[in-house]
Amino acid sequence: MKTKLTILSTIFLSGCCLCGKAPRIANPLSPTEPFRIAIIPDTQWASLKWPGVLKTTTRWIAANHESMDIKYVLHVGDMVENGHADGEWKNFNAAMSVLDGKVPYILAVGNHDIGKTADAGGTTKFNEYFPRKRFTQLAGFGGTYPRRKNDNSYHTFDAGGIVWLVIALKFCPTDEELKWANDIVALHPGHQVIVLTHSYLTHRGRDTSGENIWNRFVKSHENILMVLCGHLSTVHYVSTGDKGNKVYEMLFDWQNDRQPEPNSYFVLAEIDPVSKRISIRTYSPLLDNYKTDPRAKFEFRDVKFVSDRNAALTAN
Ligand SMILES: [Fe+2]
C-alpha cells in the first residue's frame, strides 16, 4: 500500500510541477492507516548546555521512525540560544544530522536563531548550517523564500492517504514572506497544510505575530489544518477559519534553563484520517516517560481532513 501511495503521490506532485498549478480536485488518495509526525519544541538550552539531551531525542526518533511510522520531524524554532554562536549551531547540527537519510525534517527560524548582527536578516549562521541545498534532495522539498535562503520553506509528503504540505515561516514573518506563503498554499488547494512558525500563541490567545499570521494568511485558506509553534508556555486552541473550517493551533515549549530533563520532551502527534482524530502525546526518550499533563496529552476528534472535502466535491 505504501508503494502504491508513493507512486500516486509522485504522479500527482509531478503534475503540479508541470502545469504550474494544482488541479481543482487534487488529492487522488483514499484515507488509510494512522501515522505520526514528531514536533520538537524549543531546544535552545539543550543546544547551549546539554547537547546530549537533544541527541538522545533524535537518536530515538531515528531508531523508532519505522515502527512508529513517523513521517516527518518539525522543529518549532529557537533551535539555539544565541543565533551567532557557532558552538551551539554545531551542537544542534550534530543532533539533527542523526536524522539525515532517515526521517526528513523542516525547521522554523525562531527569535533566538537570529544573530545579533544585522547580517542579511540575521539568519546567516542558520543558513550556514542548514542551507537550502541541504534540503533540495529531499523527495518532498518544495521551495524556499527568499529563493536562495532557507529562512522560509515548504515541504510536502504523503501520509494517511493525504498529501501534506508543511510551510515553515521565519519569526515574525514580513508582508513579503506572508505573500509568498499565501501564494504557495493557494497553488496547492488539495494539500492538507500544516503551518510551522515560532511565535504565534500565548496562554491568552494569539500574540501580535500570531494575529498578523492568522489575519493575513491562515484564516483565509480552508486547507490549513494546524498551526504549530513554540516560544513561550504550552497551550492549544481550536479556531474557525473564514470558510468555517477548524484550525488546530498548538504551542509546545517545555524548555528549562536550570535542569536538562525538561528539555528532553518532544511531541508525537498521531494523525488518523479514518477515525478523524489527532492525538497528542509528549515523550522524553531520556526519561522514558510520557507526560500526563492535559496540555501535553490531548486529542482532537471529528477532525475534517481535506480528503473528506475532496470526497464531497467528487460526489457532487
Ligand atoms: Fe522564542
Number of helices: 8
What is the N-to-C succession of helices and strands? HEHHEHEHEEEHEEEHEEEEEEEH
| Gross geometry | globular
Strand content: 25-35%
CATH topology: Purple Acid Phosphatase, chain A, domain 2
CATH class: Alpha Beta
Describe this structure in words.
The protein is an alpha/beta fold and 316 residues long. The protein contains eight helices and 16 strands. The chain has helices at residues 2-19, 44-48, 51-64, 86-97, 124-129, 175-186, 208-216, 306-315, and strands spanning 35-40, 70-75, 105-107, 141-145, 152-159, 162-169, 192-197, 201-202, 205-206, 224-229, 235-240, 246-251, 266-272, 277-284, 289-290, 298-300. Strands 1, 2, 3, 13, 14, 15 and 16 form a seven-stranded mixed sheet that branches. The protein has a seven-stranded mixed sheet with strand order 4-5-6-7-10-12-11. α3 (51-64) packs parallel to α4 (86-97). It is globular and about 50 Å long. The model is unreliable at 1-29 (pLDDT under 50). The structure holds fe (ii) ion. The site of fe (ii) ion has 6 residues, from loops.
Produce the secondary structure layout.
Elements: H1 2-19, E1 35-40, H2 44-48, H3 51-64, E2 70-75, H4 86-97, E3 105-107, H5 124-129, E4 141-145, E5 152-159, E6 162-169, H6 175-186, E7 192-197, E8 201-202, E9 205-206, H7 208-216, E10 224-229, E11 235-240, E12 246-251, E13 266-272, E14 277-284, E15 289-290, E16 298-300, H8 306-315
Helix pairs in contact: 3-4
Bound molecules: fe (ii) ion (FE2).
Fe (ii) ion binds next to loops.
